[in-house]
Queue: 3 jobs
Job 1
Amino acid sequence: MEGPIMNSIKTALVLGSSRGVGKAIAEELRKAGIDAPTISSKEIDTADRASVLAFAQKHPSTDVLVLNTGGPPKKDFFEIQREEWEKYHQQLFLSFVALLQMVEVHRGGYIFLISSHLISEPKENMILSQTYRLASWSMLKALSKHFAARGVSVINIALGPILTDRLKNLTADIPALEGKLPMKRAGKPEEIGRFVRSIVEGDIKYLTGVSITFDGGLSSAIL
Ligand SMILES: NC(=O)c1ccc[n+]([C@@H]2O[C@H](COP(=O)([O-])OP(=O)(O)OC[C@H]3O[C@@H](n4cnc5c(N)ncnc54)[C@H](OP(=O)(O)O)[C@@H]3O)[C@@H](O)[C@H]2O)c1
């Protein structure tokens, strides 16, 4: 059933909410009565420090912060240039550092990091992605006690294959990929959106400092 939430959550900054998983999260939060404007790479380009600082100055506080942005290409490690390391260091890590330092998340709020299942099962051709996503989660995990004392819950959402532009760009043959997945399908962005909404709307606070692998059973890890 849709309707306004019962707790005090009123505003959300969902980065990368013009498409894909971010869009689905913002749409679901809006259904819960939360002000979650669409934020594309035009509003904040996380690869550009000046853009990140300007965004943080414009949005000094929020109830929900979703750290999300575009992902890097598949690339052979030995072909990755220094400029690419620097670009994705800024895009996937330093941007989130600046936002966490500058954007206050109100007491009782939430921080979600959108990352990848590759942080626990790295792939040789996705090093640019998993290296910085793991760094971001490591930082946020360490900060989760600081945030817990302020009533702010922190959850990492480690995505498996989710049917978005990103997956279509990285995968030549989606049906062939889906045929190899445990559920014989990729995830739907709306499933992530509904998950985030259920946490926020349900006022679930004690689930914090955790990483949720959202991969339809793809991972074989026990813990
Ligand atoms: N889908 C998957 O299977 C999967 C799996 C593991 C991890 N991930 C990661 O999870 C994140 C979300 O995935 P997705 O599939 O929803 O991606 P997506 O469909 O490519 O959407 C990316 C979103 O991020 C925005 N964005 C792109 N570059 C940006 C930048 N430099 N600064 C700020 N925003 C930027 C895009 O805005 P514009 O519309 O302006 O371009 C768009 O709203 C990505 O980092 C992706 O790599 C995805």
Note: The chain has a mean pLDDT of 96.
Job 2
Amino acid sequence: MTFFCSPKIKSPKKRAPRRAAPTSQARRGIPALLARPGGRVTRAPSSLLHTHQALIACASANTFAARPSSTETSGPVCAAHSQIFVSSRDGGPTNLEHDVEPSQRTRSIVFMILGAIVARRQGLHRIIYMAENGQMAIHLPLSGGRIGAFSTHTAHPTVLTRFKAFLSAILGIQIELVNPYVYETKGEVVSRVVKDLPDGLPVATSCWRSARVVKGGINHCGECIPCLIRRIAIESHRIDPTRYRRDLLKEDIKRLDEGDEGRRNFVDIAEFVMRFTKQSNKELLDEFPDLICEDFDANRAIEMYRRFGKEARKVLSGYPQLRAFLA
Ligand SMILES: [Zn+2]
């Protein structure tokens, strides 16, 4: 786990009323780069990812030290960086034996709890950020085969609402747990990163399989959903500096075997994009009942997914062999 604190409380005796300073609880993906100074929670299962997290910490610290947000913090930013080993497996550097949770689906729970505890100890618990773009936070199923638990909802607005109540009750302090990017596409989050942290993109990790594919400095598979969403988001603004194990968008996807995972993922994304291009709000509400939720605004979510569709069509139409999927 990497953690930033700001601003520092100097002395317990002279402690002023706690400021409404944020602490950010984030992962190692692109939105994590934009989490304002506060707590940053990530796992460090490999030396490469460990290095990436440290680079993200430095990039964020340098940026926000130079330009603290006047609306969210007061006084100079102090970028304290500490790392905590978190593992779902036995062994590792600590050689500890404990229960194993290999699915990663509980990782946000771990991050939120660690973020809240560290923030509370720093006296900076007013706001905790869970930084995730709206596409992956709301995470509508791309197809009928991906409904329910098949699509992860670790940063879903309902998860944040319920965890806010849980953390406030268990820690005895009122915590705000917010995702400032819930109505932004990944491309829109990338545009902020390009502006605020231009060196951050290559060191942010999006791949669901990064720990398994890491080899020779490559930690993106290039064919999973997050890799494809990342590639579309970055290429909608600039040349993607990421090194992918598989350059799927340059393949003749129509000729790939129907069981090819890259093909299945790409086709599902393309069909999802075309639904949000062609269908009315009413049709989309009928097709995606997940849009009806008291914890976010359905119309704003639909508009966000429509903007994602526009970004995707712009990028994919640049690959001649992929244009047939956009008809
Ligand atoms: Zn991947």
Note: The chain has one domain: 22-90+102-326.
Job 3
Amino acid sequence: MTIRLGGIIVGLGLTAVLLLWSLLPGVLNFALPEKPDYYAFQEENIAPEEGFSFEGPVGTWDVAQLQRGYQVYKEVCAACHSLKYVAFRNLEELAYTEAEVRAEAAAWTVPGINPETGETTTRPGLPTDQFPSPYQNDVAARAANNNAIPPDLSLMTKARKDGTNYVYSLMMGYVDPDPADQALSPEFETPEGLYFNEHFYNINIAMAPQLTPDRVSYSDGTEASVENMAADIAAFLTWTAEPSLVERKQTGWFVIGFLLFATFLAFLSYKQIWAGMKPKKK
Ligand code: HEC
């Protein structure tokens, strides 16, 4: 009897702890000060109209889009951002041949060492090199960018919530502040050297608007609109952050198929083993 009572008390206690725990975030929300009005400027992520080809359980890469995204990176973003976890040879996954990758790598300049003097120099890239940083070091990066460091973009879509759409949104976010929001905080203004971006967490970003219509010229006939370039670079940066994304989904389908097959086999062997054990009919 007492054991049962003890059990009930412990159970109630645990339930109470869980209940309080689940209410905690709500209580904290009340306790914390409200966000200032200028946060109204900040908007939720947006997505391209037709979405991305690699989304959903059976999505795959649109290799032509990834190639266009690479072109945007190379011709626009690489002026400030490195891609240090990606090597030139990885481009073979984007349907470039070995010779094309070799030529592509050689077109980039990477840091090197003079074999005779040991001094640092630069040399043409090799397929095994990673994409270099445009700056010697962080101090130089800050000096050129209003005291902000352009972050490495290799893992950017993983480092931000809803990363693919975030990169797309950030590229599209250089708009004029909404007058209704401006009315809420009339004293709000974008400081000198920063740029208003409604998708950046700090609202004012040290990166100038990068994509303007026809900033690059695509060879496959795709219109170089800001939307298209933004979607292409977002897709490309998703690939750099998770090159095995599509493979991972396909492996998942294979595993599910295999498990279904194994379940079927188990069912058959169950039938076999119990075949002679039918209960006698009365
Ligand atoms: C002229 C230099 C410059 C170029 C070119 C440039 N950026 Fe940036 N970028 C910056 C700087 C500086 C920051 C840091 C901004 C800050 O912290 O306020 C930044 C930050 C970012 C961020 C991180 C935002 C965050 O949430 O922290 C992303 C993503 C980004 N850039 C993407 C791009 C893409 C994509 C391109 C090419 C289309 C590009 N940038 C081209 C300078 C540049």
Note: The radius of gyration is 28 Å.
